[in-house]
Amino acid sequence: MQSSKTPVSGILIQFNEELNTAYAVLHISNQRIKLNQKTTEVLLPRPMFPGDTAKLEFRLHYKWYPVNGHHPFNAMVANGSFMRISRYYPVIGYQSSTEITDSFVRKKAWHGSCYNLARTRSSCYQSNRFHTAGYDHFNNIRSNSYWYRLLVRRWKAGNRSFYRYQSGQLIPFRFAIASARYAVQKSAYKNIPVYVYYHPSHGENVAQLMKNARLTLDYCIKNFGQYPFPSLTFAEVSSFTRGFNATAYPSVIFMAERLAFHANLKAGRQQDVINELAGHETAHLWWGNNQVAPDEREGAVMLTETLAMYTEMMLYKKLYGEKKKMRERLKMHQQIYESEKGYSSEMPLYKVNESSPHIAYSKGAIVMVQLCDLVGEDKLNAILRLFLQKYRYPHRATTIDFLQILYQYTHPDQHRAIKAMFTGI
Ligand SMILES: [Zn+2]
User: What is the DSSP letter of 12?
Assistant: First the structure.
């Protein structure tokens, strides 16, 4: 619910394809409202005020097809199931993330009528701040998995085990389930327990992963502020999972078997895939989408990926010394940027969107290291720490907020160069 005092008399509920709407019911004021369409506009029996409660009951199912190839988004295998479960939850209210983004399609006539839609919200970096209803305390999930800090209840019904976990703090609405017969290694850094859950026969890189985790915690805590969660967990997931090699959820980093856990680190060009994945993803626990939850608009990806890339570069410096590995990695990112930029329209870093990862990741890494050379690493880290203090979630930060802080704490003589880095092409 939005924070205004205005009551709402109707809500829009949208279900993902995988949700079985035959079982979806909204309970409000002792009434049961059945929802059996993908998108339903519900007229409420009484107006709801901020803080009011209603209960939405639903079931979801997921299956994959063994015929014609196996291309699942999630992994459902004998020893290693994984599901990014928050993606399957019904969403409430207007969803700017599902807007038609193609400006031609937005304008064109269709079936005799004309969309003639205005610019999308997310296409403008100067839009008003907008709060979606999707972010909330994550305090009510049951499953047969191991994650999250507080196991508040466990019980058995029939042959199934149920566990109820609670996050204990405000986190962005993102959670996933991984369930397998894991081997576990535990270590600690400054009283923060670090766990690695891995397939019992994939233990070859666990020691290096632990070392990298301690180093990343050390750098980020020293420079950006306290680690926000009670523990840090790395979990191996099956290579059947699509869409990432590693991904950071609040306090848990999921990493695929093929590139991290069961990869030969000595092969090929000896890139440090552990730092590339574990260092980068652990850094995300300070930036978007964990402590920073960028407002959905142009530039949002700069507050997630560019800041994680900067941290990854500084970790290379700390691990290997400046000249060697970090400059090597920057050279590779320069090549990626050069080879990709011809395929899409160029946009400045502060307006970058997800369709241009070569700008958010590769150009972002280069720009942040240039900025670091210009103002000094300690100074830049102090500015990043201030940005985080001021715009920590539940604030919805924008790249304009970031640039304002950057200009405020740097010398006016440096502003021309900074402007060119972030707003130039
Ligand atoms: Zn990232």
Answer: E
Q: Which amino acid is at 127?
A: S
**Pairwise CA distance, residues 242 & 299, whole Å:** 25
Amino acid at 424: G
- Give 138 Cα–ligand 1 centroid separation in angstroms: 22
42 forms beta bridges with 11
Residue 284 CA to ligand 1 centre (angstroms)? 7
Q: Give me 242's structure tokens.
A: 């699509």
Tokens, residue 44: 């409420």
Query: How many angstroms is it from 361 CA to the middle of ligand 1?
Result: 8
Enumerate residue ranges in the chain where pLDDT < 70.
1-5, 68-71, 97, 101, 103, 107-150, 268-270
- Give distance in angstroms: CA of 276 to centre of ligand 1: 9
Instruction: Give the position of tokens 């009510």.
Output: 140
C-alpha 413 to ligand 1 mean position (Å): 32
Span from the CA of 62 to the centroid of ligand 1 (angstroms): 27
pTM of the full predicted structure? Answer: 0.83
Q: Where in 17-158 does DSSP place strands (E)?
A: 19-28, 31-35, 39-48, 55-60, 81-83, 91-92, 109-110, 113-114, 141-143, 150-157
Q: Residue 236 C-alpha to ligand 1 middle, in angstroms?
A: 17
What pLDDT was estimated at residue 131? 42
Structure tokens at 340: 């990709």
Question: Environment class of residue 374 by beta-carbon count within 10 Å: exposed (0-12), middle (13-18) or buried (19+)?
Answer: middle
Alpha helices in 261-363 (DSSP H): 273-274, 280-284, 305-320, 327-340, 357
What is the dihedral sign for C-alpha 166, 171, 176, 181? negative
pLDDT given at position 101? 67
Looking only at Cα atoms, what is the longest distance across the chain?
70
In sequence order, the 6+-apart residues with CB closer than 8 A to the CB of 127 are 121, 295, 297
The CA distance from 143 to 162, in Å, is 6
